Amino acid sequence: MSLLHLLSYGAALLAFLFVVLSLACGLYYLAEFVEEYTVLTRKIIKNVTGVVVAIHILLWMFDDFPFWRIIFSVMCHGVYTLNLKTFPFISLTSIQFIASCVLVLIDHFLCANDNALPSYDPNIHNTDFALIRNKGGGILKNLLNFVLQKKDELIPMASDVSSSALHSRKSL
């Protein structure tokens, strides 16, 4: 193993430690903020929960997400907000907290399979967004597929660059 390899491993380890330390500092700052401004934090959590519920309803309306899963997820968020009654004091043995923990696990296992965000399919060469929309699926999935297709058209592949350079040398 060369010195350059050892140096790169050391740099990667140092970068990883820097990221972990930065994350820990950020979490510590947020914990201090929550402790100092409990009323503001409660309002922020309540508003963010309302936004998440609204996004769930919009995904059901426009992207045809399963109705009963959306209802279950909205109900879960309702149970989560019950913890805000005594915020910042949350009893780890209260029914609301235990129900929230159980519902988080159930909710994540129900919505994780079929409704994952799309990945790019290189076999699809149709770049017209209107035609992609008519193929089925939701607006969000189709929009992300469209963006991923455009990104791959704008960024040349390494094999494309080397073949065009080879072609230009032959023409000289």
From TrEMBL:
A Pfam cross-reference name: Erv26
InterPro entries from the UniProt entry: Svp26/Tex261
This protein's GO CC annotations: COPII-coated ER to Golgi transport vesicle; endoplasmic reticulum membrane; Golgi membrane
GO terms, biological process: endoplasmic reticulum to Golgi vesicle-mediated transport
The keyword Phosphoprotein is assigned to this record: no
Protein's organism: Gigaspora margarita
Membrane recorded as keyword: yes
Subcellular location: Membrane
Annotated protein name in UniProt: DUF396-domain-containing protein
UniProt topology in membrane: Multi-pass membrane protein
GO molecular function: COPII receptor activity
Keywords assigned by UniProt, alphabetized: Membrane, Transmembrane, Transmembrane helix
Family under the similarity heading: Belongs to the SVP26 family.
The organism's place on the tree of life at top rank: Eukaryota
Residue ranges of the TM segments: 6-31, 43-61, 89-110
